[in-house]
Design brief:
Length: about 375
């Protein structure tokens, strides 16, 4: 067995022991075809391991999946004929293979790099939404073979980031295993389907989710896909948020609900005494329209574009404080932006007995006085 074969055998061992993170082939022997690198990872495809090869050319990327044994043969062939360098990243070590001009092969082992550990961690995170999950195919994110459709890569990252956030928030703030969730403004249902599947399949919750959506065609689409996926406790209804009437909501979700729908959704959650509120706030016109024509002392607000952005922050700060006023511990942080909007703020409210509701009320009044705001719409709703 030669040095290249020994190296490929090492790759095989790390895959079998679940230590494999990534393999990169670089320094092509010939540059005429424009192929620069190949990045190789392990994926789960319909319950089976596959090696996915990303062929990085000067002007394009190509992806191809192999069964593990076929992939190992492809790696050996590529090192024999097309590449002079390989870097194998594992959780425990880094292995580098180098081939000089005379064809001599050198293999060096070193300690696992920080990037390798981070990459391993990121691969674990992706398992919150495995590519072979049926709903991803039904919603047009993967092919029938479980391959990620390239133009849906941003949406897939958003799904996994969302599940990461929701897992932490639910485990931290909701002390029950039977959950009723309402997703207000569910749209095409990407995140709604993902959360239902994750909570039921991975976390073992007895969960029911209702998606509220005004567009009948999306309601019909999502109900059809839920039936195909056998998601018995996932349903979508055509209704305005302010008309939804259900006194029991454990977790309320409102992501980019437009017009005054963000405030309508927050009000429903507060009145239902929901354990957890997850909101990506949208539409800040209500406050901006109030302050038109009013002189603002802050010099930042002399400029229209700064004024618009500033009052977006003021609006969402008021929303967070109103949640605190009603007994919620609030957090505001950056979320992966939706592919159709630059707004990427997430507002979380968790029911808590430790919140100083009186202090929150005082801060609300101070903000309104400073910016000459009569009221924020959510105040009137609750």
């Amino acid at each position: 067995m030669n040095s290249i074969q020994n190296f490929v055998e090492k790759v095989s061992e790390t895959i079998d022991s679940s230590q494999f993170t990534k393999l990169t082939l670089s320094k092509p022997r010939y540059k005429s075809n424009g192929l620069q690198n190949i990045f190789i990872r392990v994926i789960d495809l319909k319950g089976d391991q596959r090696l996915t090869f990303n062929y990085r050319h000067l002007t394009k990327d190509l992806t191809k999946n192999f069964e593990v044994n076929e992939g190992l043969k492809e790696i050996e062939s590529l090192l024999d004929d097309k590449f002079k360098h390989a870097t194998l990243l594992t959780r425990q070590a880094t292995w580098q293979l180098m081939i000089n001009k005379k064809g001599k092969v050198t293999v060096i082992e070193s300690e696992a790099s920080a990037s390798s550990k981070a990459s391993s961690h990121n691969r674990e995170k992706l398992k919150r939404a495995p590519l072979n999950t049926p709903y991803l195919f039904e919603l047009g994110i993967t092919t029938s073979n479980g391959d990620l459709i390239p133009k849906m890569a941003d949406k897939y990252r958003q799904i996994n980031k969302y599940l990461e956030i929701m897992e932490h928030q639910i485990e931290t703030n909701v002390k029950k295993k039977k959950l009723k969730l309402v997703d207000m403004g569910s749209g095409k249902g990407y995140l709604t389907f993902a959360l239902y599947d994750f909570l039921q399949r991975e976390k073992g919750y007895d969960v029911s989710i209702t998606g509220i959506e005004l567009r009948q065609e999306l309601v019909d689409f999502c109900n059809e896909k839920a039936k195909k996926c056998d998601f018995k406790k996932l349903q979508f209804i055509n209704q305005r948020i302010e008309e939804f009437d259900d006194g029991h909501i454990d977790i309320l979700i409102a992501l980019h609900a437009c017009d005054t729908a963000t405030d309508d959704a927050l009000a429903k959650a507060i009145l239902a005494k929901s354990d957890l509120i997850v909101c990506a706030p949208c539409c800040h016109k209500q406050v901006r329209q109030q302050v038109k024509g009013k002189t603002q002392e802050n010099p930042l607000l002399q400029y229209g574009i700064f004024q618009e952005r500033h009052f977006e922050m003021v609006t969402d700060t008021l929303r967070a404080l109103i949640l605190e006023q009603h007994g919620y511990e609030s957090k505001v942080f950056e979320f992966v932006s939706n592919e159709h909007t630059r707004k990427n703020i997430m507002l979380i409210g968790a029911k808590s007995e430790k919140v100083n509701t009186q202090l929150a009320a005082e801060k609300i009044n101070e903000l309104k006085k400073e910016y000459h705001i009569d009221f924020q719409y959510l105040e009137q709703l609750v």
